[in-house]
Design brief:
The chain is of the alpha/beta class. The protein is 41% helix and 17% strand.
Length: 367
């Protein structure tokens, strides 16, 4: 049985389906921050356990042969919003889970890292080179630095009984049953479908490595099934290609023209604290004969089909945006701690000054 921690998320929802198609028994451990929409269609074919990775009981690992850890905060805005939670989830909980696996005798441990650890930023032309797994890195941002710290911990734990494998993925694009519109290609598409145009920031000069969500899922399975000697304690970049955002926007527009969706291109040349880096994916191709295959154009057309089919067209819904959704959950949590259950009778007076003050603050002075 394969345990996918964070299996109801954007990548996890796709990975779980890929594993099931290959005949694996799958257990998902997830807190369901974003609900169960991503795995609802396959709920009868998996075992789901609810919980927080920071307090996971070792019994969750009963019957598990390998672990794929996709959990934690998964982008810069959420990591910067709560750096404490980011460190706890992305670093401390990763070590905690790894040590549970070692205690339980689970050898293969796949970890979701990020190519953002290679970020050199705009204005560092002398560092504008294609980076590989041996390139020196010194990430500064909360998200990327937490991923790098977790990598170092995992590699320090490797031995003959514990085999960590680290996948540094490029920026993901493509459709998932737990859809996100806060990733660059997906954002471009969402803007076109909702506003009729897309905008490239900083003139689109920044570089970014990208990979389709289905290719990311297949990369995990490739590492899961590989001979131990090829993956033991190894780091692999998972990248389809590197694109400047300007080229990426043009590719998105061209794909949309093929499905008769017209749009305009707008450019914003102001600085927005953008990231820029290029990454090589040659190692995983050389060592494991794996090469991502889904192009940006193919993914865009597939997203148009699936967004229509699943009716994921309420583009303003905060559920599709990690930081917006986290803020909404936090706001709701604060209110419910005061009011009690939404529909059940509350054990408190009908008028409560603290409730009124909190609602005024969160909903505006006109409340």
């Amino acid at each position: 049985m394969i345990l996918v921690v964070g299996g109801a998320g954007y990548i996890g929802s796709v990975l779980v389906r890929e594993l099931l198609e290959r005949g694996y028994a799958v257990k998902v451990f997830d807190r369901l921050y974003y609900g169960d929409q991503g795995i609802r269609e396959v709920s009868e074919r998996i075992k789901l356990e609810l919980g927080d990775i920071r307090t996971m009981d070792i019994s969750v690992l009963d019957g598990v042969d390998a672990v794929i850890n996709l959990s934690g905060l998964s982008n810069d805005p959420t990591a910067e919003y709560n750096t404490k939670a980011n460190f706890e989830m992305n670093v401390q909980a990763t070590e905690f889970l790894a040590r549970l696996c070692k205690k339980k005798g689970i050898k293969r441990f796949l970890f979701a890292s990020s190519c953002s650890i290679y970020d050199v930023g705009i204005g560092n032309d002398e560092k504008d080179i294609v980076m590989d797994e041996e390139s020196p890195v010194n990430p500064k941002a909360a998200y990327s630095s937490s991923k790098y710290q977790a990598e170092k911990i995992l590699l320090s734990l490797k031995d003959e009984n514990f085999s960590p494998v680290i996948l540094r993925k490029g920026t993901i694009y493509g459709f998932s049953p737990r859809m996100r519109y806060d990733l660059v290609v997906n954002t471009f598409l969402k803007d076109v479908l909702s506003k009729g145009y897309l905008t490239i920031h900083y003139g689109g000069e920044m570089w970014r490595p990208l990979v389709d969500v289905r290719d990311a899922a297949r990369a995990y399975i490739t590492c899961l099934e590989a001979e131990e000697s090829k993956v033991h304690g190894q780091v692999f970049n998972v990248v389809y290609s590197n694109f400047r955002n300007s080229e990426l926007a043009l590719r998105v527009l061209e794909a949309l023209r093929e499905v008769e969706v017209k749009a305009e291109l707008k450019a914003d040349y102001r600085y927005h604290g953008v990231r820029s880096y290029r990454v090589s994916g040659k190692k995983i191709e050389r060592v494991l004969d794996f090469k991502p295959a889904v192009s940006v154009e193919e993914a865009v057309k597939d997203m148009v089909d699936n967004i229509t089919r699943y009716r994921y067209i309420d583009f303003d819904n905060p559920r599709y945006y990690n930081i917006a959704w986290m803020k909404l959950l936090e706001e709701a949590d604060k209110i419910i701690k005061v009011t009690g259950s939404v529909f059940e009778i509350a054990n408190q007076p009908s008028f409560h000054p603290a409730v009124v003050n909190l609602l005024r603050k969160t909903q505006g002075a006109d409340f």
